[in-house]
Amino acid sequence: MINFGYSIHKDNQINMDAVSMELLEKVKKREPSVMMCMACGSCAATCSAAQFTSFSLRHLMLKVCRGQMQGLEKEAEKCMLCGKCQLVCPRGVNTRNVIIAIRSVLEEPVNE
Amino acid sequence: MKKFDIFVLPFTIGLAFILAYTVIMYVRWIAGLSPIDKLKLRANFIKTLPRSLKEIVMESLFHRKIYKKNFLLGYMHMSFAFGWLMLIVIGNIQSHLYSRDIINPPYYPIFYKFFEPYPMPFATYKVFEFIMDFLLLYILSGVFLAYIKRIRSRLLGMQSTTRHIFADRMTLTSLWLIFPLRLLAESFTSHHRGEFLTGTLYRFFSGFLPVHHMAYPFWWAYSIALGVFFLSLPLSRYMHIITEPLLIILRNAGIKTYKEFKTYTDVELNACSRCGICIDACQMSTAARIRTVQPVYFLRDARYRRLTPSLANHCLLCGRCNEACPVGIDQVALRIIKRKDFTLSPAYYEYIPSRQITRAPVLYFAGCMTHLTPSIIIAMKEIFARAGEKVWWMDENGSICCGRPLIFSGNIESARVLMKKNKDLIEQSGASLLVTSCPICYRTFREDYHLRIPVMHHTQYIYQLIKEGKLKAEKTSISTVYHDPCELGRGCGIYDEPREVLKQYATLVSSPSERNNALCCGGSLGNSEIPHERREMITRDATLQLLSTGADYLVTSCPLCKKTFSRFSPAVIDIAQVVAGQWNSLPPAQRKNELAGTMVEQ
Fold it and tell me: Which of B55, B298, B355, B449 has the greatest count of CB atoms below 10 A from its CB?
């Protein structure tokens, strides 16, 4: 194979019929304002944690909305709950509680 | 003369039960104190006993703190507590003086008129009869006010009153019935007597009722009401009657709420009388119309062990209720303690890099929130430069949170991780003073970090610079009103330094909500549950209240307050900006009217 300096990415398509929306539904129940999010990224831009590591609430939300659960728990743990994101959110999303809700849903014991 | 009738049994059983229950609970609580607390109690009990007794009389009987707030409410509470006690005491003296036995059974003075229906031929006896009737009338006037308070609390100066659970309603009903039943039972028995109240009622009722046949059933009813009250007391809010004296004794011995759920905390929960005074102190109730999460409901659910995370987390932790509480319960500390039960697993923040340390005599920690208000940072830099201070700004390149927001969420473990990282930086820097612009950080540095160097909020620091002559103040004619941030004012007791500083630079207008009565801006990180629009209601109300003093500028000393207020008024400025001379160039008064306009529309 000739190396052109780039390659074909792994397919990034998401079959919305196949993924589970359970997490989003549960988070929505705990913090309804999550549906106000328009993914503007103000939260990520102001984030204290993001100055040291790759952490973004916008990205986290995107994953939650797509039902991509992989690595979510570790990612959400990076938040220091300082609350800056809440003050800059133009949509009045209760961002601090969104993180708390995502984390508590992920930490819930799975009911078999 | 016989001294027993079967109808006294409900009362006697109830009394025996409640006395035994009180002893058991006191022994359990005192035995459950931590060894240090027991030592404190042993060392200070006798020493503080006069103070405790005075406080028990002033608060548990006279309800002085409630009187100070609201006369009618104080009168109502005092008539129940003090009036009832006097009725028991005077009744005991009366029955003792005129009975032939040295010791009477405990029910005898309570049902004295039943056993002694005929008056004694002594002059002093008439005095006793008058006093007993008067005391009963006094309590009944309180009962009447209590009825009114239940129906229309506004008439007693309360915007809203507590909504009670079943056990409380039952005990409340029995309490409400006790005194009217006593009045009727005594009136029906009061033949041949000339008392002004029961005697008159006897003459009135005997005109159209078969009073002689009705007396006995009413003595039964009176005894049953007393019995039900005593038996249901431990399940209800009236537990505060037996708990509050112990709370006062323990508190005066130096025992505090601390940071764990312990015996003292349990005593605090039981000492809440659910009077509902905290509901009117809470801005979530007065401004945001949320009336289900106030301290009274939190303490109740915590006591019955049915607390939900959403209730525990639904509090701004502003501390206004602590100031208003007539019992002196530290509900803010209790909330934080209880949040630990629902918190997330700890996080370790391994991504935070170790950082380059610059050695300087003064350390400046702006804090996360100050990073959102660059104007404060610019002002602080200007102040440091003017004073010629050598400063290392430790969170210039990204801030690690101080950990207090995590403590608010009950996640103490995670907070410790951040605290350790910050503490290492502070101690390695070799600085001799830590200055911060954020009251949230300031409080946690002071209370939780156990640093070896002094910590100052920038208001204190600026005040010191002025006193040392390092800063020269120039007085302007601009009028300002100062907003005490919750964490700095009620949290740390810093009220004077900011005012002293402000007086050097501007005219200070006083407001009705200042110092320990200060409002919360609504931006508090303490509440993770409150929806954004409710926060805005609180902020709008607070901004209007402060600016309606007629001041040109609303000055605060907290970046979170500034950021929150500035959504509603551009005339908000931090004290550091005042000192640095960075007045906003807007015409404040005009903007204030605009704000008032939007208020009217909404």
Answer: B298
